[in-house]
Write a structure and sequence with these properties.
Two copies of one chain form a homodimer. Chain A is an alpha/beta fold and 243 residues long. Helix content of chain A is 53%, strand content 13%. The first copy, chain A, starts with a strand and ends in a 5-residue tail after the last helix.
Chain lengths: 243, 243
């Protein structure tokens, strides 16, 4: 919860007094035609109302009435390994920080202390994603904008997260393992190709698309910078329009 | 984040105008001695300043300067099974809700979807408590008052939580298995007595006290209602004094 500091109240008091006393002096001058009376009234009014206004502000700051919360959301970025989820999530986080909102970033390294290494079978991945979804919805209930980035290749667990959250926006970074490997050697994909590891999304595990996904970014056609701009515009328009 | 609703601004505008225009009229009367001029100035001032004040308020609501956060805390209630932790935690939660603060309750049933059943060995319990501590500190970083209630019999993991949180208050419900069993049959204790289960705090597992514990409640000498009052008073005095 936020409260006004005394300094905020003082500056606000002065900023209002400037506008208000000038108005009063003009009104008195209109009615009396006397510049001197206008100035005298203005001076006394200034002293009296600086005081009154300050205490009026402090009293209202104690009242919660009409303090409405900016509704939070869960932004869920999904896609095969190395599709750019973490980078994009970090960029969006940084951009939205300008609004001074409460935000929580959830990436695999953020949740590692909470959920120790889980396996890579379909069931294990689904359970892990559902747990992260519970956490995201706990954050959302507390007014925190949550930006999550997880491979989450199975529609079942993503839909579970969607159902658990109130405002859920899914971003799918659409690409293929072949595309992300152009010019790069990623150990994960190399090993999967040689059959040394299994359960790699984009290789032996097929990424399951959902019809409900709000934003699909074809990473071959769009830079992450452009994708960030599109997504931030979408969020500002649909979720943070009161800011 | 909270923003002022238009209705709040309108009511605040009116409440200020009442004080302010009366002041102006008195000042004008003092200087001119004319009740008519005082009323005319007051009327014109009222119309002009209702408008100006409204927009002045809306503009300041966009400014974040001087909006200071009420610092959150983690209240950690510990004690052997059936000592009253959950009940006390719920009572404190309910009492502090009156302050309209952001709060998260963490009890075993709240974290079950996040941390599937863990075991009861020393290591497993310590790991579980550390994970809950990570979660509590994540909540605290986001400005949420967190009220956690867990047996947490080992000083090591409680101290870990303490180190991970900025404002940490530990409440120990001091009692013995024999005391809580007076007039009750708790399956957990009965089974432990018969040697059917192990690792029960208060029976074969000794509860480890800490020298740092902020509040120790001897449940034999104090009702939970009195304990709640003491703890809420402690929190209001030491952590929520600006409210």
């Amino acid at each position: 919860m936020f409260k006004d500091s005394k300094m905020r109240t003082i500056l606000k008091t002065i900023s209002w007094r400037f506008t208000a006393t000038l108005t009063t002096m003009m009104i008195v001058y209109i009615f009396t035609g006397q510049i001197e009376t206008a100035i005298e009234v203005g001076l006394l009014e200034m002293v009296a109302k600086l005081l009154f206004y300050y205490f009026h502000e402090r009293a209202w700051d104690k009242l919660r009435f009409g303090k409405v919360e900016v509704p939070p959301l869960v932004l869920w970025i999904t896609g095969i390994p190395r599709s750019g989820k973490t980078t994009l999530g970090d960029m969006i986080y940084k951009e939205l920080q300008k609004n001074k909102l409460k935000m929580q970033r959830l990436d695999s390294h953020d949740v590692r202390p909470l959920f120790p290494e889980t396996g890579f079978t379909r069931d294990e991945v689904n359970n892990h994603i559902k747990r992260v979804g519970h956490l995201a919805s706990m954050m959302e209930k507390n007014g925190i904008i949550t930006i999550a980035s997880f491979v989450s290749p199975f529609a079942e667990s993503r839909d579970f997260v969607r159902k658990n959250c109130k405002n859920y926006v899914e971003v799918y970074l659409k690409t293929t393992a072949d595309e992300v490997r152009v010019g790069h050697h990623y150990e994960l994909y190399d090993k999967a190709e040689k059959g040394l590891i299994k359960d790699v999304a984009g290789m032996d595990v097929k990424y399951e698309t959902s019809p409900d996904t709000e934003i699909v970014i074809e990473t071959g056609n769009k830079s992450l910078e452009q994708a960030k701009d599109d997504i931030v515009r979408f969020i500002r328009k649909n979720h943070l329009k009161d800011l």
